[in-house]
Amino acid sequence: MNALRTDDFRVEKHNAEWVVTFTxxxxxxxxRDDGMETRTSESDVxxxxxxxxxxxxxxxxxxxxxxxxxxxxxx
Length: 75
Known about the structure:
This protein is of the alpha+beta class and 75 residues long.
C-alpha cells in the first residue's frame, strides 16, 4: 500500500461546505462546517483504471482530517 500524502488531496470551500478531493481518483468527500460528512462522490476514474495501492478507508480518514484542519482546528 502506498502511504497517503497531503499532496494527494485538494481542499476547497463551496458555500457552507468543504470539499476534499482525492486527486489520484477524483473521489470527493463533502463536509459541513460542523464537521459532519454530508456525502461522498464516486471516483471519476473508470474502475479498471483505479489505483489499487491505496486503502479506501485511509483515504476517507485523511479527507476528514484535512477538512478538520481547513476549518481552523489544530491537531
